[in-house]
Amino acid sequence: MIRALPKPRPIISAQKPNRLPKGKAVSIGLGFRCDRGVVLCSDTQITWKGRHKAHESKLFYLSGHDWTMASVYAGDPHLWRSFKGRFHELVTTRPHGKAATTGELGEIVETALCYFDDLDNDPLALCLIVGIVIPSKEIALIKTEGKVASEIAVFDYVGCGDSSVLRYLASITADKDAWMTIDQALYTGTHWVRHAKTYVEDCGGDTDAFVLHWNGGMQSRSEMTYNWEQHILRLERDVASLRRSFWDVSVSDAEFGNKLGIFCQRLKEERQLHIR
Questions:
Q1: What residue spans define the domains of the chain?
Q2: Looking at the chain, which terminus has fewer C-beta neighbours within 10 angstroms, N or C?
Q3: Is 72 in contact with 41 (CB distance < 8 Å)?
């Protein structure tokens, strides 16, 4: 049974960031419950127990005649592959004439996890964020730790042992009480993953992004993330330059006003590129 949380577990929680034990995988997987669907983002670098780094997608998606689901993971890649096989086996045995629900599919996720005894001693060996859509009827986003699944109200993450980077970014770029649009979540997720790849050891590779739409459609947006990251980098450089000028007493008011005008123009241009 999926355990519903009375409130979302946002990554801007006041709790101290969790630190994974030495030798565990450090990666980043994000999930956003949006107004018209679900967005998942992740890095693509695999580092498990100090072994050689590899790069592969951490996204898994599957659909039936009246449901779609997708997930990202952090943890043991071999355990994840076993979970995918077990989930597929279980979901294909459900009655075909029975209408799917997000609750039923969430319980299948938990059932699949119960087959892996490794999670009893090490709940962080596999953590998932799973989006489920019953076309035009239901949307659910859940997070697993060990063999337990809990609902996500707005957004959450797995992996990224020291979450201070994400907690900071969430506090200035997201509303923990409001759903984003799909486009907002895609840009925000790309932004957060880029910073995790920059500042968190063993996060890296390309950025994957995936959308489950309200109508049941599934869409990879990974081909766009590199360009979005470049836009973010340009804006951050402009902000850094403006910040330095703000505190520099040698910069006259007129010169600062000129820099501010240039920054505002670039900001407008960047925004137009995103909303076209």
A1: 28-220, 226-275
A2: C
A3: yes
